[in-house]
Amino acid sequence: MKKYLIILLLFGWVGVVWGQVNIDYGNYTIDITATPPINYESEIDYRNGKDTNGTLKFKYNIRIPEKFNLTITKNSVSQPILSVPQAFTPSPLVLFQGTMVFDRNTEYLVTITDANGDNKKVYKLRTKSDWSWTTTFGANAIFFTNRNKFISKVSSDNNLIVEEVQDKKQMEFMPAIMFTFMNNHKDVSFGFTGALGVNLEEIAVFTGVSIGVGQNIILTAGAAGHKQTRPKSDYYIGQVIESSTTSDNLNESQYRFNPFFGISFRIAKNPFGKKSE
Q1: Which residues contact 48 (CB under 8 A, 6 or more apart)?
Q2: What DSSP line would sit under 255-277, residue for residue?
């Protein structure tokens, strides 16, 4: 419930600043007093208080100055509006009342224009999209890495020859920041991930498929592109070389792709929480 309290505080702050918009999750009401009309946008968390049909209903009260026009659309479809006779409202403003029903991917546009239709202001109320980008931090294990390289060695006959050093390490760990496109309304969701990893020696890029567990734990598998030092094809083991030949002459850096598996966390929240919390 903490996140809902934060949202309520944010909405309350907006209402105090503008003196125009009040979204009350306790009574499920939306009050807009457009004096004067402004452009406004807010995100509705429809999961807080949704009914058995999976929707969230708000009663709205919209007050606009006289000689202004009001239109309301839901996902680009015009909605009927009902004005309350001014005899029942002691205010000089015109009052409109009705109901807004929010579901996933719902957007209401409350458009107010003057008599000439020139001065248009839009109040946008929308729910969060099912799919969005989530940023997490974690570590990725890169498999089947091969960092064999050539070195120079003095042979038994005092010649300088090429020798290969075998790298027996088959796995490397690298911290990474992960960007996952996934469904934020499910406790378990598959998604697509791109990531950037950095250690003291190199930068790596990652891409793959992910599964989000709970609210903030993301498991990812895919391919990692990272720089590896590899022997140059111009040389071979046992070749006699000049004394001026260095390790940089014998080897070259190449970007190669290797499989990886990673785990990451969105540390701003409880890693074991559910989407519905």
Answers
A1: 4, 7, 25, 56
A2: EEEEEEEEEEE-TTS-TT--TT-
Q: Are 39 and 76 in contact (CB under 8 A)?
A: no
CA distance linking residue 262 with residue 260, whole number of Å: 7
Q: How many CA atoms lie within 13 A of 149 on its CB side?
A: 15
The predicted model scores a pTM of 0.59
pLDDT value at 112 more than 60: yes
**CA separation for the pair 39, 120 (Å, rounded):** 9
Closest listed residue to residue 234, CA positions, set 253, 254, 250, 213: 250
Helix, strand, coil content of the chain in percent (nearest 5)? 10, 55, 40
Q: Are strands 107-113 and 121-127 parallel, antiparallel or unpaired?
A: antiparallel
Long-range contacts of residues 148-157, Cβ cutoff 8 Å, at least 24 apart: 148/230, 148/231, 149/229, 149/230, 149/231, 149/247, 149/250, 149/251, 150/231, 150/232, 150/235, 150/237, 150/247, 150/250, 150/251, 151/247, 151/250, 152/241, 152/245, 152/246, 152/247, 152/250
What pLDDT digit, counting tens, does each position of 78-108 carry?
999 988 876 555 677 899 999 999 988 899 9
Taken in order 50, 51, 57, 59, the sign of the CA dihedral is negative
Half-sphere exposure of 245 (CA within 13 A, CB side): 21
Q: How far apart are CA 212 and CA 277, in angstroms?
A: 15
The chain-wide mean pLDDT, for the chain, equals 83
